[in-house]
Amino acid sequence: MLFTEKLREEAAPIFEAIYNHPFVRGLANGKLEKEQLVHYVKQDFEYLNTFVRIYGVAISKCETREEMALFNEQISFVLHSEIHPHNNLCRAAGVSYDELQGYSLAPTAHHYTRHMLDAAHTGTLGEIIAALLPCPWTYLEIGQRLMQEVNPSEDHPFYDWITFYGQESMEPVTNQLRSILDEWARTAPEKELKRIRDYFILSCQLEYGFWDMAYRVEEWPVALQKEKRI
Ligand SMILES: Cc1ncc(CN)c(N)n1
Fold it and tell me: Is ipTM > 0.95 here?
């Protein structure tokens, strides 16, 4: 069994819980409240900004042009393509995308981004990939399963979201990151393999947490004014 197959096996209950989370069920049946959609987009816009920065750090640790090209393409993907599913949720909520940008992070999004930044700044390339991988991998599986389960028609409120993450062209990035990690794991020492496993599992848990944060419209225990980040 490949290293990432073992990771996927261990994380199976979390992948399953994510697919059955009420926010993902809401994407399937077209029923989510405006405030839940707005909270998700506000938080995900900032989350993806951090993701771009982490890809930048990952590039600084790459040894081959192929690896650099992969992260470079992913930066463009986040900046220019991943705005489409956000726009879909904004349309469904009846708000403009511009209005939802620049907000501060809620506790779970803060936790998730700090975890990834920590892995990026202190870790090896293998450790960074372990922390990043649940992001494309869980969305790929959500998209593919929703395509099977819902097979949405164009009048489904989340048609664009589901068909975006469920499209075939989503597969290669997860597979490429997995191959780099499988190769890395062949020679990594035991202690590092343990960290890689822990980073991967924590990111899976925080993927679940992110859906939950959006569903519950999570705020800080002592919420101040909903101020913009800048
Ligand atoms: C929290 C989160 N995880 C994953 C994805 C898919 N790139 C996303 N947009 N946001």
Answer: yes
Q: What residue's CA is closest to ligand 1, atom 10?
A: 44
Residue 94 belongs to domain with CATH number: 1.20.910.10
Best CA proximity match to 70, nearest among 117, 136, 3, 127: 136
- Interior/surface letters 54-68, b for 16+ CB within 10 angstroms, e for the rest: bbebbbebbeeeebe
Residue-wise pLDDT for 145-202, tens only, equals 999 999 999 999 999 999 999 999 999 999 999 999 999 999 999 999 999 999 999 9
Cβ atoms of residues 157 and 92 within 8 Å: yes
Strand partners, 103: 228
H-run or E-run covering 41 = helix 34-60
Say how many domains are in the chain.
1
What amino acid is encoded at 220 in this protein? W
The tokens for 215 are: 């569903």
pTM: 0.97
**Which entry of 207, 218, 219, 227 is annotated as an active-site residue?**
207
Low-confidence residues of the chain: pLDDT under 50: none
Asked if residue 116 is part of any domain, the answer here is yes
46 is catalytic: no
Residue 206 CA: nearest ligand 1 atom is 1
90 assigned to active site: no
